[in-house]
Amino acid sequence: MHPVAELLPFAVALAAAGALAGLLAGMFGIGGGAILVPIFFHVFGLLGVPEEVRMQLALGTSLAIIVPTSVRSFMSHRKRGAVDTELLKGWVIAVPLGTLIAAYVAAKASSVELRVIFALIALALALRMIFNRATWQLGSDLPGNPARFLVGTGIGILSGLMGIGGGVLNNTFMTLYGRPIHQAVATSAGIGVLISIPGLVGYVWGGWGLDGLPPFSTGYINWIAVALLIPITLSLAPLGAQLAHAMSKRQLEIGFGVFLILVSLQFFATIVA
């Protein structure tokens, strides 16, 4: 057991991560997983969680926290009338399906493999956001099915493997087809709901009964971390939504891109260390 004095800095780090995650959820339509996963990975390591299950535990716990955060963020954006409800309805099956596939893959993959996936996707998306040009479009409107269904499934898979709410992926998809960034951000909050709930179920199933998990864990979900961070992220998500609507498209893109680069580099550092 760790003395309270040793655990206090980790609790403070988790609380700070939760505050930033809540703001990010509202600002970028994401559940904050991009900041929570790296923090969880390191904190669980300092608490003695084995390498074999640490990354999976970070991903699953992040998705569990995203459930209420995404719902709160989605409700805030919907009040502003910016959500594409038609797209969300069309992805009710596709996105959860992809997330469940991701949970299965994560249960079979190694910690290093999951970190590589996380870092590469984050870096690729960051570069796209930072160097984005208005001419970078694949069309003037979103594609129809079956392409749209496959994109939704792909977003579910990649998001589930990163422990995120899918905001960054959906933002990229919608803006490539000419949709405004603010509409993409608002809709992404709803995508987070479609990802986080089946993701929670999938990661509970994937880690059920495994050795090495910390106390108060159900599968790859640690409920102590969930209980600590949910109140913080929920309280700050509406503020993030207000900030998003006060910023320009370019400010949102550059800010999000820089953030993703920092996260990606941090994970690459853990791989080569």
From TrEMBL:
Keywords, in A-Z order: Cell membrane, Membrane, Transmembrane, Transmembrane helix
One Pfam family, short name: TauE
Subcellular location: Cell membrane; Membrane
Ranges annotated as spanning the membrane: 31-50, 57-75, 87-107, 114-131, 151-173, 185-208, 220-240, 252-272
Gene Ontology CC, one term: plasma membrane
Bilayer topology annotation: Multi-pass membrane protein
Chief localization: membrane
Family: Belongs to the 4-toluene sulfonate uptake permease (TSUP) (TC 2.A.102) family.
Protein name according to UniProt: Probable membrane transporter protein
Species whose genome carries this gene: Pseudorhizobium banfieldiae
Lineage, highest ranks first: Bacteria, Pseudomonadati, Pseudomonadota, Alphaproteobacteria, Hyphomicrobiales
